[in-house]
């Protein structure tokens, strides 16, 4: 049983890490809030910085591109979540089956998660989605169809595919861990009672995976709301793929005003917190069951 002395010692040893973490989080947040109320032009010495009040917030939200960028962000996040969860569950069940070279297969499935977003976007853009020499173009011609210019004709779908390929290994790994913790005797008993594989999946396996699925949804959503590199490398924000993060980047480049970009960053933080609170309620309900 921990004594008061041991608890005090533990707090003392953890204090440097906690202080460093708080500083790592609070300093950028405080600077973002400060600059959002100011006009600051570090690359334009002809413009004098000064207090802007709420004008940066009004200017950013009144832009005709603001709400479409929020909608695009949510569409991409939702599409990636659906694909990674559905395919993640399928891959987790498949990888849990005994097979030859099971360890190698698992490593190959998880490998895309360690590829840099910029590199994976370039690979998809040049090797898979190129309308002339891409693998998908050759596949289309093989079946007698006209190759599709993915990044211009189906840009949002293309971004969803690229990002899903990156995050599918993460979802698979979490869900595979949950599948391996499933009680095998319960499945054997249901099989002996005559339950079909589909019934066993919906009534036993899927409820068991609910907690893992909610964790995957929560973690992925937090990171997907700030998606940037894949869009910058592939479409450059064109063809309706401009997310809120990319809109902030463009507004800062256009105006050279750090204050305007900081105001957009505050809106992005608000959106992320709204989504996170909503997802945390879902996670809490599942964990309380």
TrEMBL record:
The keyword Cell membrane is annotated on this UniProt entry: yes
Pfam families noted in UniProt: BPD_transp_1
Alphabetical list of InterPro entries matching this protein: ABC_transporter_permease, MetI-like, MetI-like_sf
UniProt KW keywords: Cell membrane, Membrane, Transmembrane, Transmembrane helix, Transport
Source superkingdom: Bacteria
Location of the protein in the cell: Cell membrane
ABC transmembrane type-1 domain mapped to chain residues: 70-279
PROSITE patterns, sorted: ABC_TM1
GO biological process: transmembrane transport
TM ranges: 12-37, 74-95, 107-124, 157-179, 212-239, 259-283
Membrane topology: Multi-pass membrane protein
Entry-linked PANTHER family: ABC TRANSPORTER PERMEASE PROTEIN
Name of the protein this chain belongs to: Sugar ABC transporter permease
Source species of the chain: Meridianimarinicoccus roseus
